[in-house]
């Protein structure tokens, strides 16, 4: 069965309220679920109870029931019984480390392959790719491997920006992704501006754009030394 994925770049767009720019997408994505399992492991400076409560509050108006995975006595069994899986942003290295610690990668992969809808933003989107080698985050912890969920056959780079402020002499995001392409020319990288998201269904992998995205294109595809702009409505099935 084809995966059902909603991969969002960020939790906000410009000055929007927490998760509100994406709320209608999230509601539609989990429409058949009575309860959605939330994975808060990317949170570092916010404890898991607080993080889960924040997500619950943000989605309460949309009748989406949220349960924090951290409250489960058996996280693997909780994944196996989930009707929907939602993964929050934060630090991607910490998130992946915790998924390895609880031995959850194979469980999530199997559940999603069975048709369970998966959604994530920022770090939660990052881990849906092949590896986390194109995250923007600092490696504050060391997971056993950079291999991630492999739910899509590409790398992801949420929060993509292409500004180069005057006087800034560090590498731009595009230059960093060019370094990755140099060493991995055959692996595509999907860069999502804030407010952009990738929706994957049985028939398509479509780029969407929320109101307020800065820039003419919500996403870019980096591969083999090229950078291709992706307008809203682009179906990645035709490109990767």
UniProtKB/TrEMBL annotation:
<keyword id="KW-0720">Serine protease</keyword>
<dbReference type="InterPro" id="IPR005320">
    <property type="entry name" value="Peptidase_S51"/>
</dbReference>
<protein>
    <submittedName>
        <fullName>Dipeptidase PepE</fullName>
    </submittedName>
</protein>
<keyword id="KW-0645">Protease</keyword>
<dbReference type="Pfam" id="PF03575">
    <property type="entry name" value="Peptidase_S51"/>
</dbReference>
<dbReference type="GO" id="GO:0006508">
    <property type="term" value="P:proteolysis"/>
</dbReference>
<keyword id="KW-0378">Hydrolase</keyword>
<dbReference type="InterPro" id="IPR029062">
    <property type="entry name" value="Class_I_gatase-like"/>
</dbReference>
<dbReference type="GO" id="GO:0008236">
    <property type="term" value="F:serine-type peptidase activity"/>
</dbReference>
<comment type="similarity">
    <text>Belongs to the peptidase S51 family.</text>
</comment>
